[in-house]
């Protein structure tokens, strides 16, 4: 390979290879529970943060900053699709580029924590290392 060649690894394709992942298009997080595959750069079949000496140094920063707010939003609210939409109506279109992202945002309606007002809870904080979200609970 000539010096200074730019190489882009297509991790989108690697992560969907049926040789390493059963039914890759299905959202099934439990597939990672008992397997040996992780995202820390030790498995070349699945490496969203790259691998080796030049892998992403932001991995320890970004992981809790995504996982904790998401876990807290799921814990504190029930989420519904708007306007009677059902799961199969979701637009899963993607835009291809150096990274692949959703074409259109997902719109969800949060419903307050069950029984929060009855329990006398009027506000709470969603916390993770770098983000604090203050939530006011209101009756409908
Ligand atoms: C979900 C979020 C992120 C993903 C999926 C991601 C993914 C990646 C990938 C695939 C690479 C290329 C690794 C390689 O060439 O093998 C990379 C490099 C890099 N990332 Fe991230 N990253 C994320 C967030 C961040 C954050 C938050 C920071 C900084 C705070 C960061 C800093 C960097 C830097 C500096 C490099 C270049 C490393 C080098 O070339 O030596 N990343 N990232």
From TrEMBL:
Superkingdom of origin organism: Eukaryota
Bilayer topology term: Single-pass membrane protein
SUPFAM superfamilies in the cross-refs: Cytochrome P450
Chief localization: membrane
InterPro entries recorded: CYP450_71D, Cyt_P450, Cyt_P450_CS, Cyt_P450_E_grp-I, Cyt_P450_sf
Location within or outside the cell: Membrane
Keyword Flavoprotein: no
Cofactor(s) in the UniProt record: heme
UniProt KW keywords: Heme, Iron, Membrane, Metal-binding, Monooxygenase, Oxidoreductase, Transmembrane, Transmembrane helix
Family statement drawn from the similarity comment of this UniProt entry: Belongs to the cytochrome P450 family.
Protein name as annotated: Cytochrome P450
């Amino acid at each position: 390979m000539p010096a200074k060649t730019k190489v882009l690894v297509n991790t989108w394709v690697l992560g969907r290879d049926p040789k390493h992942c059963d039914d890759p298009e299905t959202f099934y997080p439990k597939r990672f529970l008992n397997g040996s595959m992780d995202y820390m750069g030790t498995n070349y079949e699945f490496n969203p943060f790259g691998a080796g000496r030049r892998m992403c140094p932001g991995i320890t920063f970004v992981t809790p900053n995504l996982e904790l707010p998401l876990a807290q939003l799921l814990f504190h609210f029930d989420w519904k699709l708007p306007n009677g939409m059902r799961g199969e109506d979701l637009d899963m279109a993607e835009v291809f580029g150096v990274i692949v992202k959703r074409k259109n945002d997902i719109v969800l309606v949060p419903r307050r924590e069950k029984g929060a007002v009855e329990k006398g809870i009027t506000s709470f904080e969603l916390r993770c290392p770098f983000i604090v979200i203050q939530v006011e609970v209101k009756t409908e």
